[in-house]
Amino acid sequence: MLSQTSSSTLQVKTLLNLSHDISIASHSKVEHLLVSNFPNYVKGSRFYDVLHDLLIHGIFNVDGNLWTIQCKISSHEFNTKLLKHFISNTVNSEISNHLIPYLSKIYDKNRVINLQNVLRKFGVDNICNVAFGTDPACLDLENMHHTQSMSGLSFAKSFDDTVDICSSRFMSPLSLVWKMKRFFNIGSEKQFKQATEEII
């Protein structure tokens, strides 16, 4: 649909205009929003409300001065070249030391695998290595029954659950629905609370 529009921009509104989304397919417009003029485009209260339980006041969930301060602090910690080098080394190490041996053992045992699940575990191991400096060893077959690996898999599931539930919050046309579920600690919001406790 985006390719059909003259402006490479599409605005979608829900019934009764309860929520709306804007999709952009133009490189120059995306650069304008995310690079050149990022501070001018606030995330807004809906974004903040949906992600606050998970991200609190972190750089991905704030605007204005708080975002500027956190951005300046983190830019000193990780300049682009240093960050790329660190991530590249981490991912390469994870591929050589865990992913390839994991797939080799599966192949040697002639077992069928769920590739999406394997790549999810690979992703969680990388995220934890980069963000927290710890490896949950989700892909370590030798430790499959040990606490470290099981806690890594539990972390991975909890992480997936929180992301899925945050996504469903965004999809809800009425924020009152998920806020009521959170207030009464029922349904997906009860699951969200349990998952965030596992992560933290």
UniProtKB/TrEMBL annotation:
GO molecular function term, any single one: heme binding
Listed cofactors: heme
Domain of life from the UniProt record: Eukaryota
Family statement drawn from the similarity comment of this UniProt entry: Belongs to the cytochrome P450 family.
PANTHER family reported for this sequence: CYTOCHROME P450
Species, as recorded: Prunus dulcis
Entry keyword Oxidoreductase: yes
Protein name per Swiss-Prot or TrEMBL: Uncharacterized protein
